[in-house]
Amino acid sequence: MITARAAHTFEPVGRSVAAARAFVRDTLQGWGFGDVVDDAVVLTSELVTNAVVHAGTAAEVVCLRSGDGVRIEVSDRYPEREIPLQSGGVQMGSPDREGGRGLQLCAALASRWGVEYSPAHKHVWFRLDLPERQVGTRAAGPSVSTELLPLADDRVRVAVIQIDSEGAVSAWNDDAQELFGYPAKQIIGQPLTDHAAWPHTPGTSTGIADALRLSRWEGSYGIRAADGRVVPVYASHLRVRDPQGDPSTVCLLVRDDERAVLATPQRGAAPEAAHRADGQSSDPFETFIGSPAPDDLDGLLQRTVERSRDMLDGDAAFLLLATDDETELEVRATTGLPSARQRFARVPVDTGSGRYGTARMPAVHEDLAAVPGAVPLLDGTGMRSVVTVPLKVEGRLTGSLGVAAEGSGRYSNEEALRLQFAADRIALAVESARLGELERLRRGSLSFLVEASDLLAGTLDRDQTLALMAQMTVPTLATWCAVYTIADTASEPYLSYVLHEDEERIDGLKELLGRIEPPEPVPTPGARIWPAPARAAHEAALEASVRSLDDEPHHLGSGISSTLTTAASVGGETVVLPLVARNRVIGMLVLGKPSEDHFRQENLELAEDLSRRAALALDNSRLYSERMAISQSLQRSLLPPELPEVPGVEVEVIYRAAGEGNEVGGDFYDLFSIPDGAYGFAIGDVCGTGPEAAAVTGLARHALRLLAREGYSGPAVLERLNNAILDEGERSRFLTLLYGELRPQQDGGALLKVVCAGHPLPLRLRQDGSVQPAAEPQPLLGVMDDLELYEQTVRLEPGDVLLCVTDGITERREGSRMLGDDGLAEVLRGCTGLTAGAVASRVMRAVERFAADSPSDDMAILTMRVPEPQRN
Questions:
Q1: How far apart, in Å, do the first and last CA atoms of the chain sit?
Q2: Cα–Cα distance measured from residue 834 to residue 54, given in angstroms and rounded to the nearest whole number
């Protein structure tokens, strides 16, 4: 049943993709559906991209809420773009292909999805169900329903075997006889090692003799039966003492495919966990497991270490989770340890030889002073005795739980047994919560990378790209960030950008990083530790402390206090990620944490993904900047560097090139001196815009100057220029050109000789406000071989204005309206009495206001005015 609906239509433009993501995110968060927001945003982004970018149509996004989930529909108006089908349904194709990727994501993330067609639309929809949330009390350990238990011929047989301190079988029950074929009188007294097919535990040298002496062991091996075959078994070994006080081991064995029988929490409690005389449980974990478990992993882990410490009356406790490859353990929760033992610090699983050097087995250290470095996490903490046990799920190491005390000799195998039982009961809950957190992080990371890629792709400005890189990492992934760039292979890394989550510390951070050598530009992928900033921060803090003692013993100055604050914010873990683009290291991304803090592995993996995208965006911005600088330098050479001052005549030019990044297009102008005290002027328009038109612009402007200064008349100059353009062959473009010679007169006027070759006619504004064309039209250049051009003479009296423009001015459009020659003349009539600069500005302002859209053609305005004589 649909209980709420939200819809919005997005135009077929690139920015609509980000707007659609924001719409879906805000809608679902408003409905309280935060558990599925990340998946919904990723799927919506892909489907809307298909509609507005690939299909080129508007997209309608509809969100429908029901009690147990949400349905999102994305519709476009291009149903002809059908999805290729196979006999079994939609053909997904390769994951590396651009097309069809949205449907692959639907198949991977959505509960249900589909495609529907109507006469005018195509609808792609997906549904996301809300995750089930258990209510009430639940067990923290693994829970297996009756339906999931393995089937047996008649009943599950559990062999109970007791092994004495010498390793010989001292008890053998009836189920053991049924499973393996040996009667008790035949097997008792024989070493179990004679009948066990024992595989070594990976990563250790532990054999069955060692396992029988451990306080707790669980895993799979084999027993050679009486008929010679090996029976695979799943075993749980428990170290106990018999009534005489001698140590022995009780082994519970079932067939290996019946391991769920021993893997459930109902397998019993340790002997030491018996109820007290008052009927209350002496095991704090019994109360903890029965209470509602925290919803988040951090709360579950913190409660675990606190109860572990209380259970064994310890001074400290810690819980570490294993990485996916089981080579390192990451600190996730501690109690009673110094602040230096912060979360996400990592220690190796195996620190030495033997079972005491691995976290895979329970271990009791009676005095750490005798074995320094045995538990690296406790170095320098003052703890003397410690007991550690592994957390395992289905035989795989998932973590380590430890309790420590300041006194020596506090713990023995009995405490290890109690802690191991507690660890067994909590292991599956911890692993389940960890996997849930990891899944949420990975889905959130996918959404983060989608938006990061969108932002990085939206700019080609180098400085903005650097700022985006830093802003996306701080504070999401790190406390502070620095970006080093490398111009070329011969250049040293340069500190280009620094950002701290506290803006007041940015300057101090820059100063601190400026005191140390930049990191080495190593192309090896992945994050590597960079200890230099932490060392520099420590040294700066020591220097500041010494100065405070020497100068002001009882009061820290503001500068010293700032130094200490900055050092504390930089004193934690610092990592460097290479920025590699096109097989070259172009920089380094440096991420840092505050004092004694550490990065979690998931964030480093996300930072590595981000660094790859950021490196390509940064290199693209570099290439764009270099090519833009080259282009602008060449384009600037096509325009006159400055206009000469003409005696007795005001001259003003306004130029606007169409297209982003273009300084010169197809329109051009020039004003230059020629012999006999005259000045040549030109304004022209090459067919088209952009670099191709600019090439002809350069040819025309330089040819005009050369020919005019050789003494050729106006018609002769244009005829020779026409031949030069035609000689360009296929690269030639036709050109409209107004060329003239300006000669100031002794009486205060100006004489002009003008040739108008296909160009908009120049307009003359008189003092009385009348406007007339100042020339007649003649053939344009670059089309015909033989041209017969002539020049016309125009005299400007004091107060007269000559306005010359390109067709980008007269052809300015707003819908079906065009400014035209008449509109331009009307604007010019209102410019009586204005200076040349004021006339040009008013004309340009009128043209810009004529239409709302940006100009699509180059525009140039050249005005010349003979000023009126000044009155005394």
A1: 91
A2: 53
**DSSP readout, 118-164?**
-SS-EEEEEEEEPPP---S---SS----GGGSPP-SSS---EEEEE-
Q: Where do runs of H (alpha helix) occur along 173-257?
A: 174-180, 184-187, 208-213
Tokens of 630: 């080259």
Separation of alpha carbons 37 and 835, rounded Å = 63
806-825 residue pLDDT tens: 998 998 988 888 999 999 99
What single DSSP character describes residue 461? -
693: number of Cβ within 10 Å: 23
C-alpha span between 266 and 143 (Å, rounded): 9
State the burial class of residue 61 (Cβ atoms within 10 Å of its Cβ: 0-12, 13-18, 19+).
buried
The values of phi and psi at residue 359, to 5°, are -85, 0
Q: How many CB atoms lie within 10 A of CB 116?
A: 11
pLDDT in tens, 459-491: 888 888 888 888 888 888 888 999 999 988 778
Phi then psi for residue 417, to 5 deg, are -65, -45
C-alpha 552 chain-centroid distance: 46
Percentage of the residues of the chain whose pLDDT score is greater than 90: 25
The pTM of the full predicted model, rounded to 2 decimals, is: 0.50
- 805 φ/ψ sector (left φ>0, alpha ψ -120 to 50, else beta): beta
Which token pair is 675? 């012999």
The tokens of 43 are what? 């799927």
Q: Name the 3-class secondary structure at 558.
A: helix
Q: Which strand (E) or helix (H) includes residue 655?
A: strand 650-656
Range among 50-54, 297-301, 510-514 with highest mean pLDDT value? 510-514
Give the residue among 134, 104, 42 at the shortest CA–CA distance from 442: 42
pLDDT at 872: 55
Residue written as token pair 């020591």: 542
Classify residue 868 by its DSSP letter. P
Q: Are 480 and 570 in contact (CB under 8 A)?
A: yes
Tell the burial category of 84 from Cβ atoms under 10 Å away from its Cβ (0-12, 13-18, 19+): exposed
Confidence of residue 169 (pLDDT cuts 50, 70, 90): very high
How would you classify residue 265: left for phi > 0, otherwise alpha for psi between -120 and 50, otherwise beta?
alpha
Q: Is 354 helix (H, G, I), strand (E, B) or coil?
A: coil
Q: What is the mean pLDDT of residues 506-518?
A: 87
Please tell me the distance from the alpha carbon of residue 167 to that of residue 413, in angstroms, as a whole number.
Answer: 18
In angstroms, the CA 143 to CA 591 distance is: 42
| Cβ pair 606, 551 in contact under 8 A | no
Residue 469 and residue 618 in contact, taking contact as beta carbons nearer than 8 Å: yes
